[in-house]
Amino acid sequence: MNYIGLMSGTSADGIDAALVQISNDGKVSLLATHALTYPNPIREAVLAFKHTADNEIDRAGRLNVVLGELFAQAALDLLKEQGLASDKVSAIGSHGQTLRHQPTGPHPYSIQVADPATIVERTGITTVADFRTRDIAAGGQGAPLASAFHRAAFHNPNQNRVILNIGGIANVTSLPRDPNDPVVGFDTGPGNTLMDGWTQRHKNQRFDTNGGWAQQGTVSVALLELLLDHPYFAEQAPKSTGPEEFNLQWLDKIIKKIPSILSAEDIQATLLQLTARSITQAVSQDLPKTHAVYVCGGGTHNTTLMSVLQQEWGDTPVATTSELGIDPDWIEACAFAWLAWRTLNGKSGNVASVTGAQHEVPLGAIWIK
């Protein structure tokens, strides 16, 4: 059975579309991929929702439909490239674009847009979307949701593995070799979001290619310590976060506390170290028996970050998920294709020990073609 997974992360760079084949026992084979980059006005409209602003309802409603069109286009482009008719795809699993993630408090919620009704109308393919809401209703954080897929695709009875996804926000899934031990997963904190935002501000580029700009700077120990004082890092899992917590406005406030003047590249170097240190400290403290770390997401292309991660972990080997058979750029899109398959078969999609939900539940709502 063929499925398409659609994913856009907190970096809001664009849409990843993955065509996968899923066997009756749930084994996933990645067949083809397509990336659709957001036009700059659309990306700016998405990023504007990191903070409250006037007329949010109207802007969100319009953006929901516009992104629905783009998500549908990403799926159609993928099918066209592969010469595959839409009736050969069982379903689309669409994560959508997160606008706001507030998983705590008396009325927790998480909002993703990219109208699934528009997707099914434009593609003619049954679409599963709104994956996070059900987990939150069951008492969970609604994130991370890829952990169930990580377990299905990457568990190994001979190795305690950590799957590390470095998107805008970084998250980990611990896969103990003993199947009786619980799977653990959580957001560790900022992945690329602060580095990308700082690069955009000072270099007018979406990201720091290979971490080359960060390499030109010197890490500020004083700034790093203040950044690591954020209370999120001390919280116990299950936990999840987003740009609502880690953003340039927060960074600017912290920088003002430093008596010395730091160059832009020094701050970039420190932000890269913040990502690496917050990840490695979280794994060392909460997942001390890790044998190997396998990385996916856009952070794998930051060769400086990958090198620093290996230095921080010492003898624990750090590789990408390519060594496990799936390209690291497409793990999350594959995950939401797989989650759509789970939902259509009445199977649970969350891992309660990861999200904190009271029990495991099927995720998402179904828009039938």
Question: Which features does this protein show?
Answer:
369 residues; alpha/beta; Nucleotidyltransferase, domain 5; 2 domains; five-stranded mixed sheet; 13 helices; globular
Written overview of the protein:
The strands form three sheets. A six-stranded mixed sheet has the order 3-2-1-4-7-13. 38% of the residues lie in helices and 20% in strands. Helix 2 runs parallel beside helix 3 (116-123) and helix 10 (264-286) packs across helix 11. The protein folds into two domains: 2-141 and 331-367, ATPase, nucleotide binding domain (Nucleotidyltransferase, domain 5); 147-324, Nucleotidyltransferase, domain 5 (2-Layer Sandwich). The protein is an alpha/beta fold and 369 residues long. The chain is globular and about 60 Å long. The longest helix is centred in the N-terminal third of the chain and has 27 residues, at 56-82. Strand 8 and strand 9 (169-175) form a beta hairpin.
How is the secondary structure organized here?
Elements: E1 2-7, E2 14-22, E3 28-37, H1 40-47, H2 56-82, E4 91-94, E5 97-102, E6 109-113, H3 116-123, E7 127-129, H4 132-137, H5 147-154, E8 161-166, E9 169-175, E10 184-190, H6 193-203, H7 212-215, H8 221-228, H9 248-255, H10 264-286, E11 292-296, H11 303-313, E12 318-320, H12 331-344, H13 352-355, E13 365-367
Parallel strand pairs: 1-4, 4-7, 8-11, 11-12
Antiparallel strand pairs: 1-2, 2-3, 5-6, 7-13, 8-9, 9-10
